[in-house]
Design a protein that fits this description.
It is a single chain. The chain is 20% helix and 27% strand. It is α/β, with parallel strands linked by helices and 232 residues long. It has one domain: Glutaconate Coenzyme A-transferase. The strands form two sheets. Strands 1, 2, 3, 4, 8, 9, 10 and 11 form an eight-stranded mixed sheet that branches. A hairpin with a 4-residue loop joins strand 8 and strand 9. The termini are far apart.
């Protein structure tokens, strides 16, 4: 990787600098649009004490669920965690700290963090345990709670296409949390299906500008279906 060329050839280069006790923001919704290879690399590295910020925790044996197997995650900040039996086990045993966050609030925490906004007021969660210990304020006759934004040491993102300068295009619903996550990391690493030369992407079609991206790697993806239901 040199100059404006952000492409790296190996997952070792992609995840260089990751160490214990860091905060990682991960894009994806369920198993859609998750950076599968980057997550698998963290498992291989054996990095521990991690705080992971993501919509959910994957499933047993795949996605972020891989990191639970060796108890690499110390804290999970997520919106939905109901697909992972190992997650439930570690939560109930007290081995895993969990901070549940409304989904829209989680997206805004990432977006605000990337925009340099330290906190914001939202009505989501008022009158529930989500609001415990948080400042409240009334706007236009409706109560709001103060939520702090989120930034991470690393942000891991999955995109469809990138050029060598790190400009990104996401595909359909695989965009989900990825654009917000990409802005919120000190080091943003993107795993993509295709890399093209700089200048080949239509500027009007770029979803995330390369200014937010530090490293790009071409991956291969299983694209597993989260729940497969068949009828005879």
């Amino acid at each position: 990787m040199a100059g404006f060329n952000k492409v790296v050839a190996t997952y070792e280069e992609a995840m260089a600098g990751l160490s214990d006790n860091m905060t990682i923001i991960i894009g994806g919704f369920g198993l859609c649009g998750i950076p599968e290879g980057l997550i698998a690399k963290i498992k291989d590295m054996g990095t521990t004490g991690l705080t992971c910020v993501s919509n959910n925790a994957g499933v047993d044996g795949f996605g972020l669920g891989l990191l639970l197997e060796d108890k690499q995650v110390k804290k999970m900040i997520a919106s939905y965690v109901g697909e992972n039996a190992l997650f439930e086990q570690q939560l109930l045993s007290g081995e895993l700290e969990v901070e549940l966050t409304p989904q829209g609030t989680l997206a805004e925490k990432m977006r605000a963090g990337g925009a340099g906004i330290p906190a914001f007021f939202t009505p989501a969660g008022f009158g529930t345990p989500i609001a415990d210990g948080k400042e409240t304020r009334e706007y236009n006759g409706k109560m709001h709670i103060l939520e702090e934004s989120i930034t991470g040491d690393f942000a891991l993102v999955k995109a469809w296409k990138a050029d060598t300068m790190g400009n990104l295009i996401f595909r359909k619903t695989a965009r989900n949390f990825n654009p917000m996550a990409a802005t919120a990391g000190k080091v943003t690493v993107v795993e993509v299906e295709e890399i093209v030369p700089a200048g080949e992407l239509d500027p009007d079609q770029i979803h995330t500008p390369g200014i937010y991206v530090n490293r790009v790697i071409k991956g291969t993806f299983e694209k597993r279906i989260e729940q497969l239901t068949l009828t005879s």
